[in-house]
Amino acid sequence: MRRTVVATVLALLLVGTGCGEGRAPVAPVAAGTATASRQDPGQVERTLASLRKVDDLPLYEMTYVGDYDPTAGVAGADPPSPFGCSLFAALGDRDRPLFARNFDWEPNPALVLRTDPPDGYASLSLVDISYLGVTADPAGDRRLLDAPLLPFDGMNERGLAVGLAADDGARAEPVSGRPTVGSVRILRLVLDSAATVDEAVTVFERYNLDFDGGPPLHYLLADATGASAVVEFVDGKLTVDRRRGPWQALTNVPAAGVPDRDLRRDHRYGVLAKELDRVGGVLDAPGALRLLDGVRQAHTRWSVTYGLRGGEVRLVTAGGGARDYRLPMS
């Protein structure tokens, strides 16, 4: 059944410009008190005091001090999920595997978030803070204490990276006995507890994903060993499509089990595939950012690369900023 609709999905996407174009904006989460924080008052103060604006996207940085509950409200839905656009893992150089993505959506403020929970892996992730109800002036806003719950892409200290993209044809049927988690929240659970692609897939398998209120999603995973996989929902069931070469890419078309020639009919996927074939899946951060620039859209908010062995992060935003970070690896 899925294969019969792939051509139609591809055709529809080919006549548009991609993620989110022509769709009504998604409303942010209603304002409310933070539910995830396990911080003492001093840790709250230090977390909020670490917030600083670094470019005109606007882009902010914040270090989360102390603990949080990544499963807070796990039985409920996350806020409506965004459209993620173009992602790839360049894995041809075993010493320098790299994960890269464009995030294309509404002109909302974003946050570079550092977390280091006592019972999980440290990570660096990117958050669209409008989904917390935070807008123009986030200084002192306690809703930022829930920022760990909504990573749209990120990498942890073990070199495991994950990002999401919309997949309109996906449908996740609940499995009896599994808790339900929002389709963005699952990234936090992966970053906190998975060191490899296999472990990340196991995290996905523990939960039912809730796509209500936003587009269905699929996910690209990659790790420091050079493994990668796409996680999708095919006819309601979780499906894992593992890498079969030195790279793996994902846009907004179904990927699991779809012939390569059909995937390349999507313009952005085709551009990524052509260049990744040409270089044999070997790209450094500048090369990866050039490739992301080749598939950027008018509504691309940020482009980011994650070095899966060395912990290097390079971020370029629509606000004109280019920033480098390094996540200490373990």
What does this structure look like?
This protein is of the alpha+beta class. It has one domain: Penicillin V Acylase, Chain A. Helix content is 20%, strand content 28%. It has seven helices and 17 strands. The protein has helices spanning 2-14, 41-49, 185-193, 197-205, 260-263, 267-278, 285-294; strands at 52-55, 59-63, 86-90, 98-104, 110-115, 123-128, 153-156, 161-166, 180-182, 208-210, 217-222, 228-234, 237-242, 247-250, 300-307, 312-317, 322-326. The strands form three sheets. The protein has a nine-stranded mixed beta sheet, with helices on one face. It has a six-stranded antiparallel beta sheet with strand order 14-3-4-15-16-17, with helices on one face. A hairpin with a 5-residue loop joins strand 11 (217-222) and strand 12 (228-234). Helix 3 (185-193) crosses helix 4 (197-205). The longest helix has 13 residues, at 2-14. The radius of gyration is 18 Å and the shape is globular.
Number of separate structural domains: 1
Find the count of extended strands (DSSP E, 2+ residues). 17
CATH class: Alpha Beta
What is the succession of H and E elements? HHEEEEEEEEEHHEEEEEHHHEEE
| Outline type | globular
Largest sheet report = 9 strands, mixed
Could you state the CATH homologous superfamily? Penicillin V Acylase, Chain A
Annotated CATH architecture: 4-Layer Sandwich
- Straight-line distance between termini: 44 Å
Q: Percent of residues in beta strands?
A: 25-35%
Rounded mean pLDDT score: 88
What are the segments in which pLDDT stays under 50 over at least 5 consecutive residues? 1-34
**Which class of secondary structure composition applies to the elements?**
alpha+beta
